[in-house]
Amino acid sequence: MIPLEEWISDSLMQRLAMENNLSETVFFVPSSKPDADYEIRWFTPLVEINLCGHATLAAAYVLYHVMGYGYPAIRFQSKSGILTITRNLDKISMDFPAWKPDPLTTWPPELTTALGNIAIASVHQYRDFLVEVADESIVQLCQPDFTLLKNMGQKVILTARGNKADFVSRFFAPVAGVDEDPVTGSAHAQLIPYWAEKLGKKSLFARQLSKRGGELWCEYLGDRVTIAGQCVFYMKGEIDL
To answer: Cα angle at 150 between 146 and 151, to 5 degrees?
Structure first.
């Protein structure tokens, strides 16, 4: 997470993200536009992406708790429109677009192989392949072939009904330089409308089963979703350019 006073070049932000070698590095600057407080952008080690949840959560946390931002809401201007962030007790809530995926009748046969020959129940797609399997253990134990996934050129969300959560997921994006993302807001922009309709409920509790893991409190609002999570301060440093 790198706060800036003004934008630096795209190539420099990409090189910094590559040097950080995290799933995403977020940059933000104060906005001069009346409908936004800050402008925000996200870079993986390889490419710029148009939406990222956990990096937005981190940016909001730093603004609230480190940089002294005193208003209840933060409006980020992004490539996915205005993202409004609010805090409620120990959680920070993010207002994101809802990306409802459509069912696919066919999908690439190498998808099954790339996911370790698991039994696929269904595949949907908005931006990414949303692959549903029968139960949480399949999601937890999946061992993807990241080379095959990268060659497919497609990001993959793997999901199932949860045992102690409404649904669980993992997110694989080697095509963007991220084999597995720890917690993924853009994936939940697709998962929330999918599971809200499937389960017949608008308030959902989700777990992302990456090695780090994450818990998300979700609401389906039609054309928008809210995703709330917790954040802790980890480290502060400076970069000399």
So the answer is: 120
